[in-house]
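re the bet — no i am not wrong, look at it urself. input seq straight from the record:
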Amino acid sequence: MFSDPPGKYNFMDLDSKTRARQVCPIAFYLIFIFVFIFIFSIFLFSLAYPLPGHSGDKSSSGQKAVVTYIYDGDTFRIRFPEGERRVRLLGVDAPEIGDPSEENDLWAHLARKYAQFFLLRKAVTLSYEAEKQDSYGRLLAYVWLEGKVLFNEQLLEQGLADFFPLASLHPDMRERLQQAEEKAKHEKRGKWQPGWPTPIEDNKAKNYYGEFQAINLICRQVKVERSYTLILSRRSNFQAFIPGERRSSFSVLNLIIPGVKLTVFGLVEDYRGRPQVVLFSPAQIKII
C-alpha cells in the first residue's frame, strides 16, 4: 500500500475534536454564502417587481395611470402602460345608476358626473392595501390626484357615497375615510343635505366650477335637439343641459317658456366656455 508523503497527514487519522475544528470554518463560510445569495436575490426581485404603494404613500411608490372612462362614482377604467383595468375605490360605496329609488338614481348620476369632472382623462396615482383585487377582477385602490388629494376621501366629504368598511383597510385609512363621511353628514352635504343650498345668480356660475350649486335664471329659450335639450339663460351664457334619454321624464318642460324664472341644482361645469349644469331628474328644477 502507498503511504502518505513525508510531512503530510491523513484527515481520517485525526481525532473527532480536531476534525470538528477543521469542518466548522468550512460550514460557516458555506452558510454565509447561502444567506448572502438569498438576501441578494430578494433585493433583485424587489427591484424588478416593486410592491404597490402603501395606503399612506401618496405617490413615491404608487402606480401612475390615466382615467379613461367613468362607470359610476366609485368605479373607473384606467390605462396603465401595460393595458387597461377596471378600478374600484377602496372604502367607498357610491349609489348605483339605475337604482329603483329616484333619489338614489339621481345621486348616482351626480356622483358619476363629479368623478368625470375631476378624474376623466386625468393622470392619477394608485396605491393599494393587501387585498389588491376583488372577486370581479377589479383593482381595489386609493386614487390620488396630483399625488396629494385622495379622491376616495373627497367623494365621501361631498356626501356622494357611503363609507364601505373592508376588512383589509389600514386602521389609519379606515379612520380617515370614516371621518370624511361624518364630516359630510355634519355639514349636510350631498345626499345628506335636507334641501338645496342658497341659490346663486346665473351670471356668477362660472366662479363655482366643480361645486354643487342651486342657480337662479330667467329662461330665454328652450332649445330641443335630437339628443339633448337646453334651457338657455336670458341674462348670461349659462345653460342647463338635459340628456336626450332623460327628456321623457321632464314634463315640467311644458311650463318653462321664455321669461319664466327658475332654479336648477347640480354640478357646475364648463362646456366650451359656457357654465352649465346637467339635469338628470325633474327634481333638479324648481319654477319660482
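see?? Helices lie at 16-48, 102-119, 151-157, 171-186. told u. also The chain has a mean pLDDT of 86. so pay up
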